Amino acid sequence: MTTAAARSDRRISPVFLGIVAVAAVSGWAVWTGTGHPRGLAVFVFVTAAWVVSLCLHEYAHARTALHSGDISVGAKGYLTLNPLAYTHALLSIVLPVLFVIMGGIGLPGGAVFIERGRIRGRWRHSLISAAGPLTNVLFALVCTAPFWLHALDGVPREFRYALAFLALLQVTAAILNFLPVPGLDGYGVIEPWLSYRIRRQVEPFAQFGLLAVFGVLWIPEINHVFFDVVRGVLGSLGVSGLETECGRAAYRFWENGGGEYPVCAVSR
């Protein structure tokens, strides 16, 4: 591969830059209270920022794989941050966005195809799998920084609520992704340390792992425990349950007719 070709394989995609621009402009609109109906800017901002985090999640997998020996990720376009280059754009982008719109939960995305045969060493395999959800953890820390740094003075309430809801999405994505369930990154972390026999037995179930997780989350008792954990994590980062719920209400503006949310109408 020539040097010029290698550079083009790693040049940031205009598609990704466009999504970042949408997130920046809509974030400004949330901050300044621009736009109608009320909440539309929150919807666009959170959705665009969520897609940015999905792109960074997949990029982290690919970049770690590159440094671990899989040089094929560049030719596949994974290092450009272009969501259209993913093996399953539907799973990586469309479904996670739909789940946010419908239920307000951070669906683990995925899939960049890593040629595992090029990777040597179990630790490297585990790190490649862990890199994605660790990006969600980092994104959650960034979103909650104004809360745990007590730097909310002057931050408009709707922007604060939007950050709280975006942080909830990142925390749910990180927790779900780290579950040691076949098909999720958590299983990818431990898989290299399992025996060949166990890996072969588990392999046929990998495609159903995510569906199984969401099926289990439909059980009310488990759902309550899961969100208690999520709220506990956010609470430790200074984000209250009221702020995340107000963020969810602002995001789903069509349910409120674009109006005010009485319980959320607190002073700035």
Low-confidence stretches: none
Count every beta strand, where a strand is a DSSP E run of 2 or more residues. 0
Q: Give the biggest sheet.
A: none
Mean pLDDT: 87
The proportion of strand residues reads: under 5%
Spell the H/E element sequence. HHHHHHHHHHHH
Radius of gyration: 19 Å
Termini separation: 55 Å
Q: What is the tally of helical segments?
A: 12
Cofactor: Zn(2+)
GO biological process, one term: proteolysis
GO molecular function, one term: peptidase activity
Organism: Streptomyces pulveraceus
Structure description:
Its cofactor is Zn(2+). Belongs to the peptidase M50B family. With 268 residues, the protein is an all-alpha fold. The protein is 64% helix and 0% strand. It has helices at 3-9, 14-32, 40-68, 72-75, 89-103, 122-148, 157-177, 185-190, 196-202, 209-217, 220-236, 241-251. The radius of gyration is 19 Å and the shape is globular.
What's a quick, concise take on this entry?
This protein has 268 residues and is an all-alpha fold.
Helix and strand topology:
Layout: H1 3-9, H2 14-32, H3 40-68, H4 72-75, H5 89-103, H6 122-148, H7 157-177, H8 185-190, H9 196-202, H10 209-217, H11 220-236, H12 241-251
Helix pairs in contact: 2-3, 3-5, 3-6, 3-7, 6-7, 7-11, 7-12
